[in-house]
Structures are given as C-alpha cells and as structure tokens.
C-alpha cells in the first residue's frame, strides 16, 4: 500500500498508493459521494427552483419507476430496438463489406462515397425517417441500421482487404475455391476488425434509439424523457437519465467483453487454418 | 499502373453516376417523400443561398464553434488535472465513466429545464456533451506517457511546467486528437438535436419543421446541408490534425515501412 | 561546470590515462563516491533487498564499468545513482557533496533510445530540451548544441526527427543531449545493447573520445565483459543476493585503445577471463 520513506528524501514520508484495489474503491466511492453531495446541496439551496430535484427525490422516483410496468416496457423496447438494429447492421455490414472488399473495382467505386458518408451522423436523416415511418419503433430501427451499417461495413472492408497475402497464396496453392478461401481465410482474419466495429456500434445504437425517441417520438426511454420534461415531471426526467447512464455503461461493458472474446478467439482460430 | 488509373476513374465516376442516377430517376417523381432532385436543389438554393444563411446557418455554426472550443479547452485542462493528480483520478474516474455512459442528447431536456430554450442552452449542451470524449482521452493519453520519457524528465530536472507542456502534452497529443474528433462529431449531433427540441431557429429546427409541414423538398435541402456540414467539419479537423501531428503521422508511416 | 569543449583540447593525454590519475592523486575526494548503498523494495514481510552494501568510487576523467550477471540489480543501482529511485541506506557524493534526488551534475543515457527521445522534437530540439530551464544566453545554448552534435557526428541531422534516423544515430542523439547538459558525471545504462556490432564499436570509441576531450567521468552499466574491459579504467564487478561489490579491478591497458589492437593484447584476454570467472563464481 505504501512505499517506504528514505534516507535521501525523508520529507516524502509515507505516500498513499492510489492504485491499490482497496484505495481505488474507497476513493471512487468518496468521489461519487462528493459529486452526489454537490448535486444534493445545489438542489436543496433552491437556486434552480423545481428544475433540479434533490438526489433523494430522484432516487425515490427511480425506485417508484422500477415498480411500474410502463418503465420496464420502455426499457425493453429501447434495448430491443438497439439490439435488433445492431444485429441487422452487423449482418448487413459484413455482407456489404465482404462484397466491396473482395472486388477491387467495387471498392474503388465506393471509396469516395463511403468516405463522404462516414462523418455524417444518423441524426441528419432523422426528419426523413420520421416522415416515412412516423413516430414508430420501425423508425428507430431504421435509424440504428442506417447509423451503424456504414461503421460495420467500413471495418469489414478494411478487414477483408487486410487479409494476409501469404495465407491467400497458401489457400490458392491448396486449391481452395473463392468461396472456401473467403470462409476459411478472409473472414477469420477480418473478425478483429468486425469486433472493433461492434464495440463502437453497440453504445452508438443505444444513443440512436434514445435520439429517435426524444426527437422523433419513437416509443422507449427517449420518448419518456421528452414527455417527463414537457410535463414538468422533473424527478422522473432525472431518474430516467440515470437509467440511461446505467444502460450506457452496461452496453460499453458488454460490447468490450464481446470484442475481447472475439479477439481472444481470433489468433487461436488462425493457428488451425493452413 | 493500369489498375490504378482504372480505380481513379471508378472512384470519381461512381459518385457522379450515383448523383446522375438520382437526378434522372427522381425527375418525374410524384412520391411525397422523394421529390425530384432538381426540386430539392431549387429549394436548397432558395433557402440556404443565402436567404436563411445569416438567420439560421450562422447561429448554428457559431454555437458549435463556441461550444466546441470551450469543450476542448475544458476537456484538456480537466483531463490534465485529473491525470496528474492521482487522488483526483482515483476519486472521479469511475464517476466520469458513468456520466460518459449517458447518451449526450439525453442531457438536453435537463438543460432545457434548467436554462430554457435559448442560445445559452444550446451552447451549454454542446459544451457538456463534447467535453467528455476529449477529457477522457486526455486522461488516458497522459497516463500512457512512457515511463522512459518520465525518467528523462526527472534526470534532466525539467521544471513542472516544462514536463506538462513540453513532454506530457505532446506525448498525449495523438490520443487527445482522437478524443477531440469524437467531441466534434458529438458536438455536431448535439447542435442539431438542441435545435430540433423546441426551437424555431437553426438548420436542425428548419429541417424538422419542414418535415412536420410535409415540405419534403425543404427537408431534403436541410438534410443535404447538414450532411455537407458534417463532412466539411471532419475535413477541416483532419487538415488541422495532420498539420499539428505531422511528427506522429510521419513516425507511424516510418514504423510501417520498417 | 565550466569545462568548455574548446578549452579541453587535451590532445596529448590520449596516449595514456595514467598521467591523469597521477595528476589527481593530490585530490583526495573522488568525483563520484558511493558508500554502503542499500536498496530494498516493499516493506515488512514483503521487503526485498536488491542491493545489500555497495561501496566504490570513480575519479575525475575516468571511465568505470559496472558489470554483473543479469538480474543482479545493475539497473536498480543506476536508478538510485540518478535519483530516479530513492535508496534505502548509505550515501552517494559528487565532489564530496551528498546527493538528494536527481543531481544537476549528472546526465543519464538510457538503454532504449526509442523511448528516451521525444518523437515530436527535431534532433536539435531534443538536445535543447534539458537546457531550457538553465536560461543560458542564446549564443551559449546554440554553441553547446552545435558542439554536442558535432561531437557525436550528427551536425548534418539537426533538423531531422529521431525516427528518421537509424538506431545507432538515435543513441548518438541521446548522447549529444547528455553532452550539451555538460554533466560532470555521465551515466549510461547498457547504452549499446540495442545496436548492431559495427555501430557498437563506433559508439564505444565515441564514448572514449568524449572522455578524452571533455575530461568527463563516465559510468557505464553493461553485461558485456569485453566492452567493460575495452572501455574501463576500472571495473566494478557486482554480484550476490543482495548485490554487493565483488571486486574493483583496475584496468591498465598499454597504449591508446583501439578496437583491433587493444582487444588482441594478452593483458586484455587476462582481464577478460579474470572478470568473467569472478562473475561466474558469484552466479553459482
């Protein structure tokens, strides 16, 4: 926990090792208490009126929400839309990426287009999605797919084009056909890239569903937040934002765990390929 | 050589072909959602060049510029402080990771509640949302500064400010830049979102209003403008990055060549 | 310190280092003195003693090599010397002045040049970095940098970035940085371990010529016994757990050192086997 004081720098004395597990947990808890305490004091002071409920009111509201069916339906719809959209985007993006990555002319033809579309966030086409699909879960799903498809396919293209030339030559000399080469050599090599895309896209898909609810009226937590704000139900608003924080952290954690598994599995798989 | 020439032709030709196809296929369109591209371009010119430019485009861009600039400064400074003071880092890192998990757009309703619908709310939303990626990547970047470089600082007795500004800051530069790029994208999203939520001014508001009024061509014009701005912002960022981090890009290229 | 490069044209003394040591006999205090140095990590039951009791000294203008089997604690010793790690016992002195923290009179050249040079600074700016807080007059700083780069033969590469140079050249930049700092004691940690054999010979000779020209005290940590014999005026062989000084061997090779003739001397072979058997014995 501590490193010793020394003859040369006796003034240094005992120093706290903040990276020790116990110290880390304690200090992290202290930090959380400080932030929550600041919030509580600011709210109790009344400087923000009813716009800033206290921590205790927010937590009480959160507990109440946890007992309601509406909350769980909202959460379920939100998570399901994000997960379904992500799954569709990954499936579509991998197919698209493999097709583009395998054929050089197709890659050359689409390069400028993908590079142009890459930095444009999906919120830009939200008005179009709302116009076509209305304030529905379908609209949210469309936005998630539109938002994540490009990320996944760009990574898949990079993965396919990154395929080891030695592995490809070996596959040819073993007389593998194009499909077999793709399945046995190219795709396994691209999994690391696709894993990265999934890690980035999973939290993004959640954000997009919330945006779709908040701005486009799709059912889910986003819409509930909008309604809570519009209706002046401020403790509900804050409680729902806290829930989104929990979901966000969970999705980041889950997607990194998935990526770790993919990456772990990836080199061991390569060993088995000729 | 021949293959490269073919690729260039395809690279330039394909986008042109896509736009041409859109133009031709949509020419006689009576579909309410997909008006002819010619009509969209007419509306684009009528709205943005330059009738609404000063009243709607400039305020949006100004909010983004101010908000992003503040976010970057605050993010780098806070990141620096948290990374270099171990106790602060241990205290606030878990909380920061939680706050980062909140979709940035979800903070807008809270800010509307606290500050109202004005420009201040929009700038504050951009600042709040865009600060986190820069701050977290600054913390990670400083923590990852090589122990070899730290030892050099000690051996040559560099002063505290020299260590921070001349060694830690440039060493963390590539990671800070990566965070700043994410911050810019998030700032751009929040700029649009803050206008779409109960505002009547700005490109985002105009575009959503057009959708709500079933003015499909106006809405498409807004989408095209937003898409173009998102692309342009990223190009500007990349240009600035490759200037400031020329050493990093060069050393990476060298590494790959070796 | 005031020894300017220009003033150190002691060309005549390259033939023998012995005369210098005789000069300094009257000087009772060695440049670097290490007394009963001890270092342990951890505390309580987990305490691990790395260095038990180390005593040695190095005179002005001498090259001393610290040799020992790998894992004996050479790098730990060096980190204590440079003030990067606090020692847990004993004391160190430069010119009789006790050390506390990284001493201003010392510069360190690290083994891994790629992790000790700043990739965002040009060669010239890398060398300038440690001089900034000295607030030297502009002309003096420029002169120091020029002289240091000339001494390592890199004047032509001043505007290049370290990563544009070969490994041996990068290590020269690190040496130039140390030279421009004008230390009284230059400490090097396995400085030539990650360069090819030919470059290694060149850098060894560079090290000797710096000592001759600048009258600098140089301490080199190495695991290469041939290198130690070739470079040293004295070899400090350390070994044991915890580490202590096995023996201090005076190296008194005749004539000017030369990669071909010196290494072929019978005295060279004798010193080499003596040092090697010392370390072998300590390892058993």
Automatic annotation (TrEMBL), chain A:
The chain crosses the membrane at residues 21-42, 79-103, 115-133, 139-160, 181-198, 204-221, 233-254. Pfam families: BPD_transp_1 (PF00528). InterPro entries: MetI-like, MetI-like_sf. It is a multi-pass membrane protein. It comes from the Bacteria. It is found in: Cell membrane. Its main location: membrane. Residues 75-255 form the ABC transmembrane type-1 domain. Keywords: Cell membrane, Membrane, Transmembrane, Transmembrane helix, Transport. Belongs to the binding-protein-dependent transport system permease family. This is Nitrate ABC transporter, permease protein. It comes from Zhihengliuella salsuginis.
TrEMBL record, chain B:
InterPro entries: MetI-like, MetI-like_sf. PROSITE patterns: ABC_TM1 (PS50928). Gene3D superfamilies: MetI-like. Pfam families: BPD_transp_1. The chain crosses the membrane at residues 5-25, 66-88, 95-117, 123-146, 167-194, 214-237. The keyword Repeat does not apply. Residues 57-237 form the ABC transmembrane type-1 domain. It is a multi-pass membrane protein. The keyword Cell membrane applies. It is found in: Cell membrane. Keywords: Cell membrane, Membrane, Transmembrane, Transmembrane helix, Transport. It comes from the Bacteria. Belongs to the binding-protein-dependent transport system permease family. This is ABC transporter permease. It comes from Zhihengliuella salsuginis.
TrEMBL record, chain C:
InterPro entries: AAA+_ATPase, ABC_transporter-like_ATP-bd, ABC_transporter-like_CS, ABC_transporter_ATP-bind, P-loop_NTPase. Pfam families: ABC_tran. The keyword ATP-binding applies. Residues 1-28 are annotated as: Disordered. The keyword Nucleotide-binding applies. Residues 32-265 form the ABC transporter domain. Residues 19-28 have a biased composition (Basic and acidic residues). It comes from the Bacteria. PROSITE patterns: ABC_TRANSPORTER_1, ABC_TRANSPORTER_2. Keywords: ATP-binding, Nucleotide-binding, Transport. Signal peptide: none annotated. This is ABC transporter. The gene is ssuB.
């Amino acid at each position: 926990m501590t490193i010793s004081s020394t003859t040369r720098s006796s003034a240094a004395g005992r120093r706290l090792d903040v990276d020790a597990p116990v110290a880390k947990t304690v200090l992290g808890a202290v930090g959380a208490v400080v932030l929550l305490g600041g919030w509580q004091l600011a709210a109790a002071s009344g400087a923000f009126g009813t716009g800033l409920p206290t921590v205790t009111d927010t937590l009480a509201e959160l507990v109440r929400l946890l007992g309601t069916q509406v909350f769980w339906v909202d959460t379920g719809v939100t998570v399901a839309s994000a997960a379904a959209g992500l799954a569709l985007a990954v499936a579509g993006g991998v197919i698209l990426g493999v097709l583009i990555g395998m054929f050089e002319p197709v890659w050359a033809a689409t390069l400028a287009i993908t590079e142009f579309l890459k930095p444009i966030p999906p919120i830009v086409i939200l008005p179009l999605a709302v116009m076509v699909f209305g304030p529905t879960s379908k609209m949210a799903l469309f936005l998630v797919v539109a938002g994540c498809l490009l990320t996944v396919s760009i990574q898949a293209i990079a993965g396919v084009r990154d395929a080891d030339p030695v592995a490809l030559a070996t596959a040819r000399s073993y007389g593998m056909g194009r499909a077999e080469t793709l399945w046995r050599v190219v795709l396994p090599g691209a999994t690391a890239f696709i894993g990265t895309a999934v890690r980035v896209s999973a939290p993004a898909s959640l954000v997009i569903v919330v945006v779709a609810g908040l701005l486009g009226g799709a059912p889910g937590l986003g819409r509930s937040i909008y309604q809570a704000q519009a209706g002046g139900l401020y403790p509900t608003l804050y409680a729902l934002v806290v829930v989104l924080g929990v979901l966000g952290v969970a999705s980041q954690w889950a997607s990194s765990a998935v990526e770790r598994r993919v990456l772990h599995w990836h080199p061991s798989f390569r060993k088995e390929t000729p | 050589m021949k293959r490269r020439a073919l690729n260039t032709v395809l690279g330039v030709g394909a986008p042109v072909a896509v736009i041409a196809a859109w133009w031709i296929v949509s020419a006689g369109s009576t579909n309410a959602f997909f008006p002819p591209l010619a009509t969209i371009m007419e509306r684009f010119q009528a709205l943005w060049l330059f009738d609404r430019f000063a009243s709607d485009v400039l305020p949006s861009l100004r909010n983004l510029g101010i908000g992003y600039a503040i976010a970057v400064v605050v993010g780098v400074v806070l990141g620096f402080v948290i990374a270099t003071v171990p106790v602060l880092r241990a205290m606030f890192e878990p909380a920061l990771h939680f706050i980062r998990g909140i979709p940035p757009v979800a903070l807008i309703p809270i800010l509307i509640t606290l500050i109202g619908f004005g420009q201040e709310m929009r700038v504050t939303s951009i600042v709040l949302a865009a600060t986190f990626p820069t701050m977290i990547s600054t913390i990670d970047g400083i923590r990852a500064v090589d122990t070899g470089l730290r030892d050099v600082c000690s051996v040559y007795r560099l002063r505290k400010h020299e260590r921070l500004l001349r060694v830690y800051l440039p060493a963390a530069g590539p990671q800070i830049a990566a965070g700043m790029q994410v911050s810019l994208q998030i700032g751009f999203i929040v700029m649009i979102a803050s206008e779409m939520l109960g505002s009547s001014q700005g490109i985002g508001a105009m575009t959503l209003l057009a959708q709500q009024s079933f003015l499909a061509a106006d809405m498409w014009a807004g989408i095209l403008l937003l898409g173009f701005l998102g692309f342009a912002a990223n190009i500007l960022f990349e240009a600035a990055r490759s200037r400031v981090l020329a050493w990093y890009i060069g050393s990476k290229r060298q590494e790959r060549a070796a | 310190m005031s020894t300017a490069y220009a003033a150190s044209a002691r060309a005549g003394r390259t033939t023998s280092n012995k005369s210098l040591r005789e000069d300094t006999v009257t000087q009772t205090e060695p440049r670097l003195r290490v007394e009963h140095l001890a270092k342990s990590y951890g505390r309580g039951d987990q305490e691990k003693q790395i260095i038990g009791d180390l005593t040695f000294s190095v005179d002005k203008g001498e090259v001393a090599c610290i040799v020992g089997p790998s894992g004996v604690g050479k790098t730990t010793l060096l980190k204590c010397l440079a003030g990067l790690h606090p020692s847990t016992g004993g004391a160190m002195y430069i010119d009789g002045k006790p050390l506390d923290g990284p001493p201003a009179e010392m510069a360190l050249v690290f083994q891994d040049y790629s992790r000790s040079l700043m990739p965002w600074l040009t060669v010239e700016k890398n060398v300038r970095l440690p001089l900034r807080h000295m607030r030297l007059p502009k002309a003096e700083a420029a002169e120091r940098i020029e002289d240091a780069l000339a001494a390592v033969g890199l004047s032509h590469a001043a505007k290049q970035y370290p990563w544009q140079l070969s490994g041996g050249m990068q290590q020269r930049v690190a040496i130039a940085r140390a030279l421009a700092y004008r230390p009284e004691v230059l400490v090097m940690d396995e400085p030539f371990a990650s360069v090819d054999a030919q470059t290694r010979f060149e850098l060894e000779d560079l090290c000797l010529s710096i000592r001759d020209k600048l009258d600098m005290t140089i301490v080199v940590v190495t695991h290469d016994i041939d290198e130690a014999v070739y470079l040293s005026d004295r070899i400090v062989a350390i070994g044991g757990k915890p580490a202590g000084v096995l023996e201090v061997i005076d190296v008194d090779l005749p004539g000017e050192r030369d990669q071909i003739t010196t290494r072929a001397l019978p005295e060279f072979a004798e010193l080499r086997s003596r040092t090697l058997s010392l370390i072998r014995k300590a390892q058993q």
